């Protein structure tokens, strides 16, 4: 799916959430299918891209991994860590942040990452499902480490953006 001659759409997406929840690793898993064991807190790269096919259109996702890039974003991945309750408790604040700084029509996916760490889980799936339903967000649990659900979550977000534009 990489490097088509013709791009039909470019969708700007932001990945937000508390520090260390796995934002950079999720992005690197989706864009390059890589998980980097010794990742630095933030590498110089500001965004990464991957082109996917949606309804026979080439959609280039331009995904930003830095705070403060909400303006003009069509979608947001709001990430928490299923092993860190505090990162889930902060999700409401991140939603407010998006509602304040992003376009009203922004599509938001709530992502519970590190689902591979089952023994360390402190955020039950049902809590997140309930929050997501109340707020009208899509919800997925993912693992950037194993890759579980990462493509599915990003694709769903891009498809929903495609459906609302
Ligand atoms: P960021 O600050 O939100 O960008 O978080 P990072 O992507 O830098 O990840 C923070 C730490 O969590 C790093 O040590 C990663 O290796 C680890 N990590 C990220 N995603 C996962 C995951 O899905 N599973 C596990 N077990 N560790 C992860
Ligand atoms: Mg990071």
Can you tell me about this structure?
With 165 residues, the protein is α/β, with parallel strands linked by helices. The chain is built from five helices and six strands; from the N terminus they run E-H-E-E-E-H-H-E-H-E-H. It has a six-stranded mixed beta sheet with strand order 2-3-1-4-5-6, with helices on both faces. Bound molecules: guanosine-5'-diphosphate (GDP) and magnesium ion. Magnesium ion binds next to helix 1.
Tell me the layout of helices and strands.
Blueprint: E1 9-17, H1 23-32, E2 47-54, E3 57-64, E4 75-81, H2 85-89, H3 91-101, E5 107-113, H4 125-135, E6 138-141, H5 150-164
Parallel strand pairs: 1-3, 1-4, 4-5, 5-6
Antiparallel strand pairs: 2-3
The structure holds guanosine-5'-diphosphate and magnesium ion (MG).
Family: Belongs to the small GTPase superfamily. Rab family.
Organism: Sesamum indicum
Protein name: Ras-related protein RABA3 isoform X2
